[in-house]
Amino acid sequence: MFDRVVSNGLIVTAEATCRGDVGIADGRIAAIGTGLVGREVIDASGMLVLPGAVDEHVHLQMPLGDLISSDDFTTGTVAAACGGTTTVIDFAEPRPGQSLVEALAERRAEAEGRVVIDYGLHMTLCRADDQTLAEVPASIESGAASFKLYMAYDRLRLGDGDLLRVLAALRAHGGRALVHAENHHAIAYLTAQALAEGRTGPENHPRTRPALMEAEAVHRLLALAWLTDTPVVLAHLSCALGLEAVRAARARNQRVWVETCPQYLLLDEQEYHRPGFEGAKFVMAPPLRSEADRAALWAGLAAGEVDTVATDHCPFFYATQKTRGLADFSRIPGGAPGVETRLALLYTYGVRSGRLSPQRWVEVCCTHPARRFGLAPRKGTLSVGADADLVIFDPERRVPLSYRTLHQNVDYCPYEGWEVHGYPILVLSRGEVIVRDGEFVGTAGRGRFVPTAPMESDGD
Amino acid sequence: MFDRVVSNGLIVTAEATCRGDVGIADGRIAAIGTGLVGREVIDASGMLVLPGAVDEHVHLQMPLGDLISSDDFTTGTVAAACGGTTTVIDFAEPRPGQSLVEALAERRAEAEGRVVIDYGLHMTLCRADDQTLAEVPASIESGAASFKLYMAYDRLRLGDGDLLRVLAALRAHGGRALVHAENHHAIAYLTAQALAEGRTGPENHPRTRPALMEAEAVHRLLALAWLTDTPVVLAHLSCALGLEAVRAARARNQRVWVETCPQYLLLDEQEYHRPGFEGAKFVMAPPLRSEADRAALWAGLAAGEVDTVATDHCPFFYATQKTRGLADFSRIPGGAPGVETRLALLYTYGVRSGRLSPQRWVEVCCTHPARRFGLAPRKGTLSVGADADLVIFDPERRVPLSYRTLHQNVDYCPYEGWEVHGYPILVLSRGEVIVRDGEFVGTAGRGRFVPTAPMESDGD
Amino acid sequence: MFDRVVSNGLIVTAEATCRGDVGIADGRIAAIGTGLVGREVIDASGMLVLPGAVDEHVHLQMPLGDLISSDDFTTGTVAAACGGTTTVIDFAEPRPGQSLVEALAERRAEAEGRVVIDYGLHMTLCRADDQTLAEVPASIESGAASFKLYMAYDRLRLGDGDLLRVLAALRAHGGRALVHAENHHAIAYLTAQALAEGRTGPENHPRTRPALMEAEAVHRLLALAWLTDTPVVLAHLSCALGLEAVRAARARNQRVWVETCPQYLLLDEQEYHRPGFEGAKFVMAPPLRSEADRAALWAGLAAGEVDTVATDHCPFFYATQKTRGLADFSRIPGGAPGVETRLALLYTYGVRSGRLSPQRWVEVCCTHPARRFGLAPRKGTLSVGADADLVIFDPERRVPLSYRTLHQNVDYCPYEGWEVHGYPILVLSRGEVIVRDGEFVGTAGRGRFVPTAPMESDGD
Amino acid sequence: MFDRVVSNGLIVTAEATCRGDVGIADGRIAAIGTGLVGREVIDASGMLVLPGAVDEHVHLQMPLGDLISSDDFTTGTVAAACGGTTTVIDFAEPRPGQSLVEALAERRAEAEGRVVIDYGLHMTLCRADDQTLAEVPASIESGAASFKLYMAYDRLRLGDGDLLRVLAALRAHGGRALVHAENHHAIAYLTAQALAEGRTGPENHPRTRPALMEAEAVHRLLALAWLTDTPVVLAHLSCALGLEAVRAARARNQRVWVETCPQYLLLDEQEYHRPGFEGAKFVMAPPLRSEADRAALWAGLAAGEVDTVATDHCPFFYATQKTRGLADFSRIPGGAPGVETRLALLYTYGVRSGRLSPQRWVEVCCTHPARRFGLAPRKGTLSVGADADLVIFDPERRVPLSYRTLHQNVDYCPYEGWEVHGYPILVLSRGEVIVRDGEFVGTAGRGRFVPTAPMESDGD
Hints:
Four copies of one chain form a homotetramer.
Chain A (H helix, E strand, L loop, with lengths): L1 E11 L4 E9 L2 E6 L4 E6 L4 E4 L1 E3 L7 E2 L2 E2 L4 H10 L2 E8 L7 H12 L6 E7 L5 H5 L1 H6 L4 E5 L9 H14 L2 E5 L3 H13 L7 H4 L3 H18 L3 E3 L5 H12 L4 E5 L1 H5 L24 H13 L4 E2 L32 H10 L6 H15 L17 E11 L18 E11 L2 E5 L2 E2 L20
Helix pairs in contact in A: 5-8, 8-9
């Protein structure tokens, strides 16, 4: 007798699709079988049952100068949950003088009481002094075993020497690296040039961050990581040229994984040419690219060259926040919403369109994000003993996307007016129903911190 | 109450590793959970429990001129079973004038009554006339939905025009392509040259089949498959240059998968320099390559660039069959044994050495071979409803490899004297124990033909 | 006292540009200097003085089934001369049963008495039997040291095995290889497909000869040539993908040179979409490609990756010969005129547009073609002792191109209506003025056979 | 009646080889012909006559902290002259606060009165402030139209942003860029690591400057230059990976030229494993590489992918200067002698070994260095009106190389004990014999500054 049984669904995992029941006990998956008996039964006939999705890359209530990203830990995780995501990984960013462990504690304190799903935290390493690097093991022990490195952004970026020091420290301790790769100086140069020429509109954003300079940073990072023999994950790869640099590194037997995002698969640079200031909605880094880049990312995702799809969810209100950059595109806060729409978009444009198998869909949205960051098999899988994070997904439900109906706390949706075909209708987190018929029914603060584990020698 | 329960093992699948029981009923996996109750219990404490391995590429009792490969359908499948493989895919090769469906029936007749595990059959397409291509749908309907194409070997090979016709036909009907890619003419030229110069020993075998000419064939095949938009699987890729050609095709968004074999991962060309005629033991096509090639294949396997590990098992007795080529290396029957040792070798040199995660090990040996050839989820997975093909694998068992103790019907082992660390100790096929403590305990003829399914649009 | 002095011109060679006089004696260049005194003085003030151009690839009075290319040895060489070309290399093609030396003699007999400028002959090797290969040294001794190999065309093409045999023979004897690289079988397949679908117009010509299949043939050829260590020249490279294959070969330290043609630099595939049957005027092999291909060829030419610009001149009358393919594009005789316009087009669109330096212009049109085929320094240079083949080129002369005014014996010009800026106004061959103010003033039959020399070890 | 005639030599230029006389008047080449009559005749029977070689990259009396490179403008140019080099390009390096034009004037003042052959100066741009960039046109007008940019070395290097600013300024004004490409931060990191581990010997020098990090810098530079559309010359390319990055840039139609040096063609990393401190003799940046790198550079030089061979001559006494780094390899002054041996080494190992044609030898040592830096046709050619800088080269003279007999002011020779086969025996500079039978017979201070010209649109 299980606490709860999700019965008769089409169970979809990275391994296979099968018809059956999922038995839940004590918040964990206790059994997968048929004819399971539970105190409570959720009928999943005609539905897909999949592991709760894992979004390895979100920025909730993130300070950005005088602004803060518009989804806080509650609204953001509610939106995630409604979209079928049951674990997010956000970021802890140490302030000057603050230790990594203190930063982690501080960020956890911000999240506790607010998050509605489980969450992990990447530790941002924006300095490479001896003391900071000496704290890497303590960060790992405290549950932040993955580290965000920036090659762009003034306050955050690491120069090549610092990158080497950090990569070597991560290699020594099994820390995982998630890297934002763009050439900072080229962006600064091109931005200054644009502004000097009076080109201030959002359409200048992509022009100042060309794909070639993302690929340059990828190429450079992979050369540096080769020196230190450090596996790395490339955050939000957006272009074919960057993927080509990854292939070159793999050709020298290097370990590198690639994250992309739905926006790079589904949108392209023509969005920047919307009338007026509308392009600001799509100001993010890297920027949206060409159709050929989109095709290359889809193909790479299908072929296994791209490993995970995260969202880089980082929303700002169009009406009141994006407008900071009305007179200067470089002051537009960068980022866009997405945490709620990932799973349905990838189903509609991936599985339905024949680009991805159901297995690959679950793999890149659930299983691999968890594995890549040390949350597997507790998260991202439907294996016995795993947290009972489940999504009941109606493959026939058609949902028009609109910021008015989505739960993300922001006044626009990049996919406004699109219709997805297939949608989560019921979501469980550790066995508890938190979304029913598309609405959040849980309580704020129920989410827990999940530590990320360091790398094993197998690097997988 | 299940028929049988494998209890308390460490269940390892492509998705995750978890501790639990596997419940079996009616020859199928009925449940995965804990505390499962069965009429019979197999205690798997301390053991790994994985899906029965799938070997997509074996040649049992294969005629080769006046010879026949030395493992028949019984000895070969017994050896497979003892090594943890519960499904093999062999080949049906139509004789001149024989229809595809007749060839399939004839080959099935040879296997029936003999095979001890389930088996599928690839249909060899060695001609491309209209009538043969018109039979492709019938072959698929009859359960042979994958097709072997040869670019080398006199009697079998297809020229580029025929390849195009075949690839187009497969594309039209969802047939799967498994292609042997080497440049036939270069081999013939180099062989004639070697013999004309009196170079007759087995060390000339690799010199007449250079890696560049395998890569050339891969490159050409992928160009042709691009024209017809046909996904293909490359059989037994052996070299870094070939993998580079695959990367180039993926860079133009082409769908291609790669099979390699344990021998290309573990052995290299120095074997051909053994004293006397010993090199003949390693005469196979493609030949063993360099250490750098080995490293590239391991890295590609870990990175997901290489998809499956099959054996190309095709043994000939060293003492009595390989000797056909004593005076002329080109008459040495090509092929080597391997069907029994794959799983343990990949565990020892893959998982134990840190090159592969347990998930990846199962994926490349079990799950992906089944998926790639339309046998999933029935084979290669531990999902509910799948055939209860299971391997109980003792991760600590040390087994010295020797042809004397292995079950393959051949008088040598390419890995003679090597020790593997981890070995199957009990194997179930459709719920029946067929190997116990390393010895086959089933009955000949119990194996069944499993049809391969054609491709879905998602190509996965 | 020289026989003749070309005085006061701007002498342009592959080495440098300088102001000076060229003194001619006994049909050879006797001196370059200033203040030279001659019995006859040609004032070249304001003019460029360059070596007579060398066109390494022309097909005059070439039989093609029931047709013959429309320029005979007289009209074709008159046109060449008027365009500033003082040496052409045509082809000798042995008939079945005919020896190479006989074929050479027969073709020389066709040319003698007709040609108005000096000419060489490539020997076409369309078979690879032992006897033919044994004749290679005799061909070289008889003055045909370069050999044309075809990978496409039914009657002419060599399979890979034959290619290897031929390449090895050329390597042994220093024979030079000029290779037409396209995948014959893919062309045949696509052509049959087009015709079967009722697509019969000339716009189908490029669709049946895709760039990828030219690149495939280049890649394959270079792999084969690597096996035999034979340097090769790629005839009429038309696409960026082909150039990429060349780079890959150079990356493995292979010797390969590249010829392209003005049509691949200046025209693109949109010509095939002209109304009616007009696209037939541009039916040639390889076909015209994309704008991106054009750009890649210009860049490669400037960078030294592409070595020579020849014309592949092979005209057929639009009104009466191209029409053979009215109902079937594959029967359109392939080829276009060009021998007369090369030098002026390359000056206008190369030098004037800033793509090429004057040195590079002369190098690719004059010096390198002669060097690549063993005619240097006698041809293609302005060095002392060289044949006094000179072009007096007016850099300011504007000439509208039209088949009505050009001397090529054909009823259309691919560049009809274009205007070139810069044109030959006076041409000398072995010291004799043969073109004056744009019109031929010499006599038919004055041209002589110039033997091509085999390769030296330096391969240059 | 010429002032002087070099008679009856085998004249070797980038264009051709011919037998003839060179007539000289007023220090310039007045004629090339036969039977020329001069007041003075130099019999060159049996000799090669070529343009004086141009060494685009030398560091004479160069301050390096407390040291100064050991050849001053007199000893260095005497050595150059004795080796057949009649023009060198050294560097002007502005001190902090000093304008470019002042730096040029100061460096010219150091050279005047000392140099024995003509010389140019690259302007080192080690800062990118607006004022400095505003001085670029003045530098060009003053005769320094080429600019040295460093990506490594603390005091000299430009970050990516500064590189962009400089490259854009050069593009605007036609300034030529010569770039030292190595990743500074990686070198610093690896050096600190080596020293921290107590690895202080010269064998650590190459380990701290891996080829991959040179290739990284090349790749990055070419990405930046792509943004600004600036042609660049890569200084002293040393490795195959760097050449691969060049090919990738050319594949996107970018203009880039490559310089290499004899040491990278002829020596390899095993020199660093000489006993004791001897490896210090070969400490230079980039370091010597592998045999495979050497082969790739030779092939690239023959194929036209590498454009020029310069020396980077920068000698330091082994006994008294290199010893600065006895306890710390990173303090070994970097550089080696070479200005005297280039032409003979390239003849012996290039032309005699069949790797280069005589034309290519002259092109890469004489003609292209002059053309690439705006000294053509005055230097590097044997064209009428060019400076009468000539080398009479005895192709049969065998000369053992030793620092004892060479004129370079340094106590070792990297090629000590090697024998070259072919050597300059007489050298003319502007018509004056300055080297006779291997010894300098001119006067110090006779050399003149030759301005370098900016780029033309043809970029050649």
